[in-house]
Amino acid sequence: MLIVLRCCVFFALLPRLSTAQTITETFGIGANGFSIEFVQIGNPGNEPDTTGNPNPAGSVSYVYNIGKYEISRDIIDKANLAGALGITMYDMTSEYGGNGALKPATGISWYEAAKFVNYINTSSGNTAAYKFDGSGNFQVWSSGDAGFNPSNVYRNSLAKYFLPSSAEWYKAAFSSPSGGYYNFATGSDSVPNPVAGGTNSNTLVSSDPDNTLIGPANVDNAGGLSAWGTMAQGGNAMEWTETAVDGINDSAGENKELRGGAWYMVAGSTGADTRLTVSKPSYEYAFSGFRIAMVPAPPRSSRRTARASRRTAPWKILRYPPPAPLSRTCPRKTAEWSGHPSPRQTTAPPISPAHPPSPFRSPAPPPA
After folding, report:
1. Average model confidence (pLDDT) across the chain
2. pLDDT value of position 212
3. More confident residue, 75 or 343
4. Secondary structure string (H, E, C) spanning the chain
């Protein structure tokens, strides 16, 4: 009987374990080399969340990988040296706890995040995800370009690495591998406990009611994990998604979405309804960072078939049918930001009274 029970427990854990697959990719050269750990997001064809923001949200028809952690300052420093990228970051020394190597890279514009993604693609022999002209201005891909995808003219379909779309980011943060959605990116419907750092479950780096937190934590010490195994998709730093705030990627200069909450916000304001919608792609907030996503490698048995059919999107691998969605256990509170910060405005549109950062530097020109 004991053996039978142990076997039952083992097989009951298999679905959960299968969703926590990770892969580590290495980039850069020599002393400027760095690694990024990815978590695989399965359950392709999952049902959308019809109570989140935007509505619907989070449905993705394919398997993909997303960074387990936010991109750190150390990674940007090394990429700058290896690729001469010229990406700038916000100086956190005077107000926000310093410029530690493992702190999230903040003060990053959407253009700079796209430039970083292009570097890790091209330096590893892959196609650039985003199109910049000879003067460094971001452009949409056109029908004459190899890899043109009419359903998303921002992202080249031949690229291996990219900024996660709104749906890809949302699914990794709030969905359950077994179906349904949580209110917070800690695999929970209950408000997470605010912490300055650590990895305990249902915690995130955010301000407590006494407003004692002054800055973000290291990217690998920034709270409990999501149901898929990502860290700090709530709290620590807000993160750029690839997607325009209207959900239609059809204009190069339109506002891009920031999600996830930041260290200075109270924990209850970091959930699935929180996103910044006034964020121009040139803006460099003190709290704006990012993580990246990646297409998955095909199964070994199908790699030859995949290579022979690259023109038919081989990465869209359906692995198993979506399960029935979960029901929610607590209501949400909408927290979509509106308004437009002036170039010198240093306080984010208020979501909480907690320690407001000085989040904005004068917009930099699009990267070369």
Report:
1. 81
2. 73
3. 75
4. CHHHHHHHHHHHHHHHHHCCCEEEEEECCHHHCEEEEEEEECCCCCCCECCCCCCCECCCCCCEEEECCCCEHHHHHHHHHHHCCCCCCCCCCCCCCCCCCCCECCCCCHHHHHHHHHHHHHCCCCCCCCEECCCCCEECCCCCCCCCCCCCCCCCCCCCEECCCHHHHHHHHHECCCCCECCECCCECCCCEEECCECCCCEEECECCCCCCCCCCCCCCEECECCCCCECCCCCCEEEEEEECCCCCCCCCCCEEEECCCCCCEHHHCCCCEEECCCCCCCEECCEECCCEECCCCCHHHHHHHHHCHHHCCCCCCCCCCCCCCCCCCCCCCEECCCCCCCCCCCCCCCCCCCCCCCEECCCCCCC
For the stretch 168-193, pLDDT in tens is 999 999 999 999 999 999 999 999 99
Q: Is the peptide bond before 296 cis (omega within 30 degrees of 0)?
A: no
Of 15, 105, 25, nearest to 65 (Cα)? 25
The total number of structural domains that make up the chain: 1
State which residues form the domain around 241. 37-368
Q: Measured in whole angstroms, how far is the alpha carbon of residue 144 from the centre of its chain?
A: 30
Q: What percent of the chain has pLDDT over 90?
A: 71
What is the pLDDT at residue 297? 60
The CATH number of the domain holding residue 77 is: 3.90.1580.10
Mean pLDDT, residues 308-322 taken together: 34
pLDDT band of 20, cuts 50, 70, 90: low
Give CA 26 to chain center in angstroms.
19
d(CA 173, CA 171): 5
Cβ atoms of 351 and 274 closer than 8 Å: yes
User: pLDDT by residue (tens digit) across 252-284?
Assistant: 999 999 999 999 999 999 999 999 998 999 999
